[in-house]
Amino acid sequence: MESQSNSVTPMAMSYGLYMGLALILNSVVFYVMGSPFSPVSGYISYGIIIACCALVMKTYRENREKGGVSYGTALGLGTLQSLFASLILAFFTFVLLKLVDKTLIDKFLSFMEEQLLRSGVSESQADTMMVMYRKVMTPLTYSLAQILSVTFMGFIFSLILAIFFQKRSTDPFHGVE
Hints:
This protein is mainly alpha-helical. The chain has one domain (9-165). It has six helices and no strands. It has helices at 9-33, 39-63, 71-100, 104-118, 123-136, 139-165. Helix 2 crosses helix 6 and helix 4 packs antiparallel against helix 5 (123-136). The longest helix is centred in the middle third of the chain and has 30 residues, at 71-100. The mean pLDDT is 89.
């Protein structure tokens, strides 16, 4: 009898490491270029998340031989991978904001204020919002928000990708003990 683990955690952890490193590399490149809050960086991050989720689902499906991959397993695999990647990225971001460049949060807040004013928000409303943001925006809260956002985006992309990577079992006794 063949021993085949049904756990997706080890694969999600290893591919999450790769995704996290790719997201860090993206952040470093745009930081060095002097535009760490560029929308292009965000689009590239989305592309990295989609590509890495698709890669882990494809690899897991190919390693399952006759077992098949359910929609829920593929969804869980992509989401869990995104969680591990977001933890790595959040640690990097925390170190960057807390130790390397302590002025980056102030730059981010001024960037946000500029974006608010461009979107048509009145100056008094923008000032009120920025006072609130300045109170809560710390390296820790920024990093925690990054964990939530990357995991959520991985979940959303995995919802769609899992449709294409699910596979029915060819073993008629799969799941029967």
